[in-house]
UniProtKB/TrEMBL annotation:
Its main location: membrane. GO terms for cellular component: endomembrane system. It comes from the Bacteria. Keywords: Cell inner membrane, Cell membrane, Membrane, Signal, Transport. Signal peptide: none annotated. It comes from Caballeronia grimmiae. It is found in: Endomembrane system. This is Nitrate ABC transporter substrate-binding protein. InterPro entries: NrtA/CpmA_ABC-bd_dom.
Amino acid sequence: MNSPVTPPSASLTPERPHVRLGFVALSDAAPLAAAALRDMGRRHGISIELCRQPSWAAVRDKLLSGELDAAHALYGLVYGVQLGIGGPRADMAVLMVLNRNGQAITLSSPLADAIERGASVKDALASLGRPPVLAQTFPTGTHAMWLYYWLATQGVHPLSDVRSVVIPPPRMADALVEGALDGFCAGEPWHAVAEARGAGRTVVHTSEIWPDHPEKVLACRRDFVALYPNTARALVRTMLDACEWVDAQEHRLEIADALAASGLLGVPRELIASRLGPVEGVAPLRFFDGGAVNYPRVSDGLWFITQYRRWGMLSGNGDDDAVAAAVNQTALYAQAAQEAGVALPAERRISTLCDGRVWDGSDAKAYLAGFDMRA
């Protein structure tokens, strides 16, 4: 992946040489930042313009309007739009996965103290004497699904026992400081910021809920792939280069420096770096891992659909496997990875989540039927 710059052949020349990429102020936008700041698209025939967005809803809306060509996006945002859950419906595409792990759940200091003293999560939340207010970042997003899954394993119903609210990631720490929240699930560096401000503490990392879970993806509308296949492939090639670069530990401080800029995260470098690098006892935030991170497995997309059905967000007898196969652009990714010399992992993998349940994508209906706590 480090061969000299050579122009693409005429048949592979990107149809759109300038690509507008959306992102939200999160540490896992690091590959986009690296790609833009280091001009990694040039060798693949594209230039990248980073477009910071205030919320995931803004990312959704600008992808749909065409103001953004593609974006760093929550895996579940793409599927929510595809399925028309809680917003406009459109045919969407997951081009690749950008990272695994790296998210967390932080609770207010009094709740975290109670749990540290031995109280169960259920009892600690009940001690408030009212429904706890817990925030996530998008109704169908990864953070909502991690929060709901974890609460259910603690005997807390995420719909009836909790007031779940949506807040943009950069607002999370402020809202916790202000007492508007009892906790939140989001990406970094906002947990590090909350702890630095004395507002709360991280009680669980999402890699403890689903080890090596998929998280952010490179997303676009499906018609973008159809109209500009060479551009889409060049974008995947570029982001593979960027993910490989960012995944090297010797580059983590360098990218933390870059992310600290006001136009990106606007957070002190040390707070970004503290969780962009290894966290003791926690599966690491990974962007590449030899390409194992980046393949857009259909089974990963299907898992999110099982959770929408579990929590009553999706009903009916749709063909969930077909939806996931259409959204996740495995053929385009495989082409780009082959050109880059990146190995393709197996389509299915076996994952054991924090409740001991195993997900491999082989029988989504049976998996869904096995949950005790549902909507």
